[in-house]
Amino acid sequence: MNSDYKSIKIEVCAFSLESCLAAEKGGANRIELCGSMYEGGTTPSAGLIQVVKQKVNIEIHAMIRPRGGDFCYSDDEMSIMQADIRMAKELGCEGVVLGILQPNGQVNIVQTKAMVTLAKPMQITFHRAIDMTPDYLKALEDIIETGCDRILTSGQKSTAIEGIENIKKLVQQASSRIEIMAGSGVDANNAQTLIHTGVDALHLTGKSIRDSEMIYRKKGIAMGGLSEVPEYEIVYTDAEKIRAVVECL
Fold first, then answer.
1. Mean pLDDT calculated for residue range 230-239
2. What pLDDT score was predicted for residue 5?
């Protein structure tokens, strides 16, 4: 169990340069850089990675996910993920984030291990795909076998606080063989509670929303086909929300 709060790392999930800069300003240790917020995060563009690397000094770990939806990928999608890993490496990312499952929900050890080999010497985080597996503790052992450096998890629940008892079990079984990072719904109100599980890191967005600067607003059309996705809201990482969590350490 991690008894040294100061050794806890703070990772921010960011979807824009603005959010990356805010994460660094707030005291985060690293960034999970993603595209497609409303799909739960996909591979960011090469342009975004390049500019973020130019302007941000903390670690950048790029999401490697070719689409939203499940985590069972075709051969063509695997080829895309391999190309994206090479891109992330060439652009200087310190790590990548991925998760690959079999149709039966178990970790795809063979495919994940191949991605880990390709990604090295970058760090590899296995993301919340672990929360979609049928046997949480078996999934832990499978991920360790692949050679990943850490796991991001919400304890097989929608938020980390809801899954806290499962996270405790995962930390105990991991026994420092792999880093465990708690994420989903993390904020200053629950950070210390989650730290007490013994995790190595906390993962959050520090999300705030501001109104668009658009004056003219076209009504009756949803650009993504989903009316519940707001067209005139800007979601960004709030440096003060990140700092509030950092100050819990």
1. 93
2. 65
Contact 238, 12 (CB under 8 A): no
Number of CB atoms found within 10 A of residue 68's CB: 11
The predicted-structure confidence for 19-28, as pLDDT tens digits, reads as follows 999 999 999 9
Neighbours of 34 (CB within 10 A): 25
Q: Which residues constitute the domain of residue 89?
A: 5-246
Considering only CA atoms, give the Rg of the chain: 18
User: Can you read off the two tokens belonging to residue 168?
Assistant: 């405790």
pTM value > 0.70: yes
Q: Torsions phi, psi of 107, nearest 5? A: -60, 135
Tokens (6 digits) for 159: 């938020």
Nearest-angstrom CA–CA distance, 121 and 116? 9
Band the pLDDT of 222: cuts 50, 70, 90: confident
Contact call for residues 236 and 180 (beta carbons, < 8 A): no
What pLDDT is stored for residue 228 in this prediction?
73
Q: Which pairs with CB-CB distance under 8 Å and at least 24 residues apart come from 171-178?
A: 171/1, 171/197, 171/198, 171/199, 172/1, 172/198, 173/137, 173/140, 174/140, 174/144, 177/144, 178/140, 178/143, 178/144, 178/148, 178/149, 178/150, 178/151
By CB atoms closer than 10 A (0-12, 13-18, 19+), residue 56 is: buried
* CATH code at position 37: 3.20.20.380
Instruction: Give the integer Cα–Cα distance in Å for 43 and 33.
Output: 8
Q: In the predicted model, what is the mean pLDDT of residues 71-85?
A: 98
Domain count for the chain, please give it: 1
